[in-house]
Design brief:
alpha/beta; 235 residues; 5-stranded parallel beta sheet; single chain; 6-stranded mixed beta sheet
Length: 235
């Protein structure tokens, strides 16, 4: 089986994809489902998100790391973890992560959301679903490869290689090399451009939260991708 890491989303995924935006969209998405959200809807724009506001929805997301005017919540996993969302749909729109997930949903048979928080569970789920290829897709930072997502991809690769044999692409080798050279996740997350931006905005606690490895067994899994609706549920 092939194991592929894309340092940025490119599309054309024939099998199973794990989308990574560790700082912070895929971490926060996992926390919403941990706190009993019925489902996550990844919108295509801020305007679409605002148009979906109702008593049964929570609107969450960011631009430049900060909550969007008119949204109920930002993109902080700590903030998300302070609530309960039973019976609610959480509508998310972020700078990088929700876009990457929507790209993957256009072609992949299965799309999962992965982060350090659920890394082991996401790797196990991907291995159980894949037939020919697992692609780990890094969301990156505004169209550029990111240190934090690449490191997280390396952690996922380590778990997957412990479960079986894979043929690796160059991206997977890069991610594994980074992971093996840097053991403590705080370093690559906090020194990444995204991490430094969060720290400058007083959101350093989010970085430390996102650096926790395999604290969750929840894997957001694509349920539906049709008519512009990209919906994830707990798995």
């Amino acid at each position: 089986m092939r194991l592929r890491v894309d340092l940025l989303p490119h599309g054309e995924y024939p099998d199973t994809v794990i989308v990574v935006d560790v700082l912070r969209a895929t971490t926060t998405a996992t926390v919403f489902l941990e706190h009993h959200a019925d489902r996550l809807l990844f919108s295509s724009s801020i305007e679409e998100s605002l148009g979906l506001k109702s008593e049964n929805t929570i609107i969450a997301g960011e631009r430049g790391g900060l909550a969007v005017a008119g949204f109920d919540l930002g993109n902080s996993p700590i903030e998300a973890g302070a609530g309960s969302y039973a019976g609610k749909t959480v509508v998310m729109n972020t700078t990088n992560g929700t876009y990457a997930a929507r790209v993957a949903s256009e072609s992949a048979k299965h799309v999962l959301l992965g982060a350090l928080r659920n890394a082991h569970a996401a790797a196990r789920k991907a291995k159980s679903l894949a037939v020919e290829e697992i692609a780990i897709v890094c969301s990156g930072e505004r169209g550029r490869a990111s240190l934090d997502d690449t490191y997280t991809a390396g952690v996922l690769c380590e778990y997957l290689l412990a479960m079986g044999e894979f043929t690796l692409n160059d991206g997977a080798r890069i991610a594994l090399t980074l992971r093996r050279q840097v053991g403590d996740p705080i370093e690559p997350l906090s020194s990444s451009s995204g991490g430094m931006s969060l720290e400058s905005k007083g959101l350093g606690e989010d970085i430390r939260f996102c650096a926790q490895i395999s604290e969750s067994t929840i894997v957001p899994t694509l349920q539906e991708s049709s008519n512009g609706q990209v919906i994830f549920v707990s798995s």
